[in-house]
Design brief:
The complex is a heterodimer of chains A (253) and B (368).
Chain A (H helix, E strand, L loop, with lengths): L3 E2 L2 H11 L6 E2 L4 E4 L3 H10 L7 E9 L3 E10 L4 E10 L4 E3 L8 H12 L2 E3 L47 H4 L10 E5 L5 H8 L10 H5 L21 E5 L11
Parallel strand pairs in A: 1-6, 3-6, 7-8
Antiparallel strand pairs in A: 2-3, 4-5, 5-6, 9-10
Chain B lengths: L8 E5 L2 E2 L4 E2 L1 E7 L2 E8 L7 H5 L8 H5 L6 H16 L5 H30 L4 H21 L8 E2 L2 E2 L7 H23 L3 H7 L7 H6 L5 H5 L6 H4 L20 H25 L18 E9 L2 E9 L7 E5 L1 H5 L3 H5 L4 H11 L3 H5 L1
Antiparallel strand pairs in B: 1-4, 2-3, 4-5, 6-7, 8-9, 9-10
Helix pairs in contact in B: 3-4, 4-5, 4-11, 4-14, 5-6, 6-11, 11-14
Classes of the chains: A alpha/beta (253), B alpha+beta (368).
Chain lengths: 253, 368
């Protein structure tokens, strides 16, 4: 009664007849084809009598560092079976033909993948960002987007006994005097006009270093001279580690 | 007169407007009173949960699922836990499976109360039907609070079971609610089924054709509203749905009114399921011990459930580490929007608002 999952190896055998040499990899989970053949394989799966994959469940992209995989989960409502096929795109120039003409439901999902993963779907009628704004620097779901120093993972340090010492990035970010609180990574995405605010306030926004309020009361003149700020360049994001325990960031008016 | 044309002009709806059901913006281009183009602008509620999840353990990610579809947190929890369990090969105790079904169905009733209430609001029957439906929804949220302490962001399911067993005072409360619920649903139906306001505004408005619906990956009550009896609880049963006896309501015309009726009938079927589950509810533990930092073997899994909005799927990829390598959410609200443009073109703005209401979107789930 439940949905039959067709293994990728079984699909690969039929796919090899229809498109000789198209199968790169076939596992029980999925079958992988080169990026440029994705659309024709999709159309074939939809119109093939045996597979009849009229329903596209979901598309997603995975960044495997060496390449991207675009994963298509498709199924047949009439025959109640499902299968997974993947299109492998290069990491440097990921372009996959759109399946928007095969399944209309791909339209928004391909835009989402483009927005967050940076994979371009050629032939898509409206290849624009969907969640983030135009001009956002980078594609956040890529593994190299904003990677924190030393592979720092904020959530994992909550389990000190589950991780061997080498895997915890706790010590490397805390102050050497003795960690009372873990340090916080600070994200600086420079905005137009921020450079002027920093010159006046002498501090960085959001870390207690003084902001526009300081300038309003004229107190910035009593502050010690600010360290030379990193010149904000639009379109570039800088990650710095701020130690909350060290004194040079502390407020001392 | 017909050859007098008006230049097309653009009207902006939202992002902050009660009829857009959250922070959702719609730019419609009008020719006279008719919509000739509709463009949605999303992302006002984007929190990048999929990225955040890559740096947290499997268990730490459960609260994110509350905050996606915040009107149906239980089903979000359930779908995610099922996918992590499939990837890690965790068995769930039987009592936990039953409790999951009960809470998921309670959540479906609560979500459909909200969907139908606000839909009738959009049609012009302002607030009164919504308040009737909120009366029952509140009782369901009380049951949630009794069990897990939270009304909306429940964080109740765990990988390997559920967080807490139900307290003793929960049983009389749910039995009382389930006894009165069929009468309440009949009350809604009497009030609304022949309601002139609702019929005039929603019948034959926003008609979705079955082949378009399948091609556009539409799921849930919107798909069933156009006559396709597709329900993952029947087609691919998870938990203990294969032991429950229930029907799949379908519509005939695929218009807004049919979607409304499908949701109304689904509430009845949910009551049926909950009653059976309460009768069959076994004793025993409600959770299996699972390591806090679960490390599934490398692999990928796609798991889908029938959430109140449609097919809620989770695509998980593991590289053997304690955090998911990739966590993708197939959100039904987002994908059901694929047909919004097709449905809206040719309608007036007022009808487009009704159509949007009948799709039952949740912006937390669209933007994630």
């Amino acid at each position: 009664m439940s949905t039959v999952t067709i293994p990728g190896t079984q699909v690969a055998a039929r796919l090899d007849e229809a498109f000789p040499g198209a199968v790169i990899e076939a596992t029980a989970h999925s079958v992988t084809v080169p990026a440029e053949r994705a659309a024709e394989v999709a159309l074939w799966l939809r119109d093939d009598e045996e597979y009849d994959c009229k329903f596209l469940n979901c598309i997603t992209g995975i960044d495997w560092m060496e390449h991207f995989d675009v994963v298509y989960v498709v199924s047949s409502l009439a025959k109640n079976h499902t299968l997974v096929f993947e299109a492998r795109a290069s990491h440097d120039d990921p372009v996959v033909p759109t399946v928007n003409t095969v399944w209309m439901g791909a339209n928004l999902q391909e835009r989402e993948i483009y927005d967050l993963m940076g994979i371009v779907f050629s032939g898509h009628p409206n290849m624009k960002r969907i969640f983030l704004w135009d001009g956002f620097p980078g594609h956040p779901l890529r593994k190299d987007f904003l990677a924190l120093p030393q592979g720092h993972k904020p959530g994992l340090q909550r389990f000190p006994y589950e991780f061997p010492a080498g895997e915890r990035s706790y010590e490397s970010l805390a102050s050497p005097e003795g960690p009372r609180a873990p340090s916080v990574p600070r994200l600086r995405a420079p905005l137009p006009g921020q450079a002027a605010a920093q010159d006046l306030g002498g501090g960085q926004l959001g870390t207690g270093g003084g902001g526009s309020n300081e300038t309003r009361f004229g107190r910035f003149e009593q502050r010690p001279p600010a360290p030379p700020p990193v010149t904000p360049v639009e379109g570039e994001i800088v990650v710095e580690n701020v130690d909350l325990n060290s004194d040079d960031e502390a407020e001392s008016p | 007169m017909s050859d007098i044309g008006t230049p097309p002009y653009v009207v902006n709806i939202g992002p902050q407007h009660p009829s857009t059901h959250g922070v959702f913006r719609l730019k419609v281009t009008l020719d006279g009173e008719r919509i000739i183009d509709a463009e949605m602008v999303l992302g006002y509620l984007h929190r990048s949960m999929e990225k955040l999840a890559e740096e947290r353990t499997y268990t730490q990610n459960i609260p994110f699922t509350d905050r996606m579809d915040y009107l149906a947190a239980m089903t979000g929890n359930l779908g995610y836990c099922l996918s992590a369990e499939k990837l890690a090969g965790v068995e769930v105790p039987e009592r936990a499976s039953y409790l999951r079904v009960i809470f998921a169905e309670l959540q479906r009733i609560a979500s459909h109360c909200m969907a139908n209430g606000t839909f009738v609001n959009d049609c012009g029957a302002w607030q009164t039907p919504l308040m009737y439906m909120f009366r029952e929804r509140e009782k369901i949220l009380d049951l949630f609070e009794m069990t897990c302490g939270a009304r909306l962001t429940t964080n109740y399911m765990r990988i390997g079971g559920v967080a807490f067993d139900v307290p003793d005072e929960w049983y009389p409360s749910i039995n009382k609610l389930m006894a009165e619920m069929p009468d309440r649903i009949s009350e809604y139906e009497e009030m609304l089924h022949d309601n002139e306001i609702l019929l005039a505004r929603s019948r034959d408005v926003g008609v979705l054709k079955p082949d378009v619906a399948i091609n556009a990956s539409v799921s849930g009550p919107v798909l069933r509203g156009c006559g396709i009896a597709w329900d993952i609880r029947k087609a691919d049963p998870y938990c203990v749905y294969d032991r429950m006896d229930f029907d799949i309501p379908v519509g005939h015309n695929g218009d807004c009114f049919d979607r409304f009726l499908v949701r109304l009938e689904e509430m009845r079927q949910s009551v049926r399921i909950i009653k059976q589950a309460l009768e069959q509810l076994p004793g025993g533990p409600v959770t299996t011990p699972v390591p806090l930092a679960l490390r599934p073997d490398p692999g990928e899994a796609y798991v889908r459930i029938e959430s109140p909005k449609g097919e809620l799927g989770f695509y998980l990829a593991s590289d053997g580490g304690p955090a998911p390598y990739r966590w993708h959410v197939r959100s039904p609200s987002f994908i059901n929007l694929s047909v919004l443009k097709e449905l809206s073109v040719g309608l007036s703005i007022a009808d487009a608002i009704v159509t949007l209401g009948s799709l039952d979107i949740n912006v937390g789930e669209i933007d994630r």
